[in-house]
């Protein structure tokens, strides 16, 4: 009898094990707590913006993300119609190199017209991606729904994301200016002076041109056409010159009171060749007088640096004032 009981129990356990083995176990996991850490996502109008990815809270990869609806946060109104319209913008098809792509023809060979949504959601990461076409949609604060799918199924996440479309300046000054006096014939002998002061004004929506004036403390411009503005050599034992705006431009024309740079794409510059988006120029010693008595005429050059970047096409006037210096 005891042996029969043991055999029966073993049979029950075997059948149970088979039943468990045959039962379908859910494949993967889709968390109800998927979220954005960046909230709200701040989107500058007319400027490229890519948010951080969704935090998946252990959900199985890969995922597929779909934007379902967008709402005006103030009113709760569905505004899908605003964001469902596509706009034509230039999209890069190749790697841009300002050293090589120095004509509009070469630039256009690496771009194509493409119809895009002003704001979209990356289907693989959930990142919000905004582009130049956001200039066509109204500023405001918005919420949006997502559908997220993976091997475990699909789930709708109502108003999981928030973004604010904010006004943005069409340009920026990424870094402070600087001014250094360097002794002629002994470049390592230097004196740091008051930094340059940069002011910018947008003059028109076309052509795509930047007008740069380097002036003394009184606002008198140095004469680029007469050689009063030159390139600044690399210091130390290195040879060559530090970067100027010329390196990024399609062309440069020097005048008595200004330099004019024609550019071919925005942002301009699109990428940095080094040293950020700074431009280094030299006023030779024969054209400059320093207020500082420790810097006598004819012995020190004036080395001015400024920073500037454009996001929206048009003509801009950039004035760089150099304090403590008089043109002579």
From TrEMBL:
Keyword entries, A-Z: Signal
Keyword Signal: yes
Position of the signal peptide: 1-21
Protein name: DUF5007 domain-containing protein
UniProt source species: Pedobacter frigoris
């Amino acid at each position: 009898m005891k042996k029969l009981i043991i055999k029966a129990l073993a049979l029950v356990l075997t059948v149970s094990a088979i039943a468990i083995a045959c039962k379908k176990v859910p494949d993967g996991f889709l968390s109800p707590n998927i979220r954005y850490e960046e909230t709200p996502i701040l989107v500058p109008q007319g400027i490229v913006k890519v948010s951080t990815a969704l935090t998946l809270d252990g959900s199985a990869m890969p995922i597929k993300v779909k934007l379902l609806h967008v709402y005006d946060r103030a009113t709760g109104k569905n505004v899908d119609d605003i964001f469902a319209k596509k706009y034509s913008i230039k999209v890069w098809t190749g790697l841009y190199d300002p050293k090589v792509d120095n004509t509009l023809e070469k630039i256009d060979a690496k771009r194509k017209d493409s119809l895009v949504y002003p704001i979209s959601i990356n289907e693989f990461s959930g990142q919000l991606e905004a582009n130049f076409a956001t200039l066509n949609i109204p500023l405001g604060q918005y919420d949006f729904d997502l559908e997220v799918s993976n091997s475990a199924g699909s789930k709708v996440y109502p108003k999981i994301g928030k973004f604010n479309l904010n006004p943005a300046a069409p340009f920026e000054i990424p870094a402070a200016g600087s001014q250094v006096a360097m002794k002629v014939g002994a470049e390592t002998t230097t004196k740091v002076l008051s930094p340059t002061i940069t002011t910018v004004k947008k003059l028109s929506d076309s052509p795509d041109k930047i007008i740069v004036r380097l002036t003394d403390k009184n606002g008198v411009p140095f004469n680029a056409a007469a050689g009063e503005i030159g390139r600044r050599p690399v210091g130390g034992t290195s040879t060559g010159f530090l970067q100027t705006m010329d390196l990024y431009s399609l062309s440069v024309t020097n005048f008595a009171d200004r330099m004019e740079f024609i550019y071919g794409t925005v942002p301009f510059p699109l990428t940095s060749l080094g040293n950020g988006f700074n431009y280094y120029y030299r006023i030779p010693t024969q054209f400059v007088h320093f207020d500082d008595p420790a810097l006598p005429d004819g012995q020190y050059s004036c080395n001015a640096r400024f920073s500037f970047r454009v996001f929206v096409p048009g003509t801009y006037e950039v004035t760089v004032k150099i304090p403590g210096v008089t043109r002579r």
